[in-house]
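Two quick folds needed for the group meeting slides. Do the first one here.
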Amino acid sequence: MEYPSDFPPASRTRVTAERLRAGKAFDEAREHAPHRAYGSTVHLEAELRRYILRQFAVFTSEACELVRQGIWSVERVEEAALEFLRLCTIEAASSKGFDKSGRAFGRDWIGNSGHIEPRVMREFRLTNGDDLKKNCFK
């Protein structure tokens, strides 16, 4: 995963640790997902969002700590968080976006322009709520 150059190494480690934990949980959920003859299941798409958002939550928490320390501005956190979410979504769709039979899903979450599709952002917002603002303004 690519991080902002001024994102501290200890914060990177915490995000990476959460990626590993979330990846294990996703892999287990994929293994136990009900079999579907055609296409991905809604269940696996929800699990992939959870995999992404678990990492995102740790990243934003770490970034908001930089706000509290006066190192980053809230605007910097918003910019970095959206880019992290975009990169994480790309990585997740390509590395985890397949069911136990190998059928792909989530490949259409990123548009031709490289941005997260609006319907996927809506799902992220519904799942994640306003956690960024809550984390930064405790």
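Then this one, please, same format:
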Amino acid sequence: MIQIQVNEPGGPESMKLVETHLPEPGPGQALVRIEASGVNYIDVYFRTGQYPAERPITIGMEAAGQVTSVGDGVTEFAPGDRVAYAMSRGSYASYAVVPVSLLVKVPEEVTSQTAAAAMLQGMTAHYLTHSTFPIKVGDKVLVHAAAGGAGLMVVQMAKSLGAHVLGTVSTDAKADLARAAGCDDVIPYTREDFVAATKKLVGAVDVVYDSVGATTFLKGFDILRPRGTMVLFGQSSGPVAPLDPQVLNAKGSLFLTRPSLGHHVAKREELLWRAGDVLSWAASGKLEVRIDKTYPLEDAALAHRALESRATSGKLLLIP
């Protein structure tokens, strides 16, 4: 099998394609032949060493493909099953051993590429809109990077729940995508201050979904209503500085949370709920999963450069 590994954390060039032995699944595991692997910012964090890991570091947290063999005690899955998963590192590869507790079956109406593109960001959008801040009809929400892979899904789910959705984007082309996904108001942050624009459009919002981090975080507090919620779930522009909790009081008794997907799919029933919703919505057309570009596995560095440039609109995939 082939796999992307990182021996010394660094830039995209630190990822190397290597040939390695085909692993055998152990008890409670399955060997999956990967047909598509999703590219996410968490992969960048592992590649750069921001998230420490044993070396050689394997990269990739989600994929879809077909079960080729299973370990002892596995009864829920069998060779030939089409499956997808997230939150198991090492998906930049042609095969991966995955705990069956993380696997879900893929509906026949959903392609492997769509499933791989939907799992991590789709379940992230699901917990953000259904659990972290459960959106109600009439809520006003602002989504940063609204035309990104996660942003487009957050926008769609927020709109389906009855929210008034504002989104920030960098280009006119991304503005069109955000509107098509359901944004009621689109703010081109490169030309317009999003705080002033939000206040002019709606006054204040109930929740801010921020995957950008350093460049947007503090300003986001200025558009929240009293007792509003700031949800920081990424840091594509860099990590935020330490915050004095007194700021939350001064800005209106605000709530701040820094959630992660792992804590929202830790139980099997919760994983099946979120993944089941996402994949069934993708199958029915209720959720559009936009794939921006696919790359051969050996071009993982190009995919990371594209992701880090923040020029992408939708999901990037690697194809072994």
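Slide caption for protein two: The chain has two domains: 2-120+265-319, 136-258.
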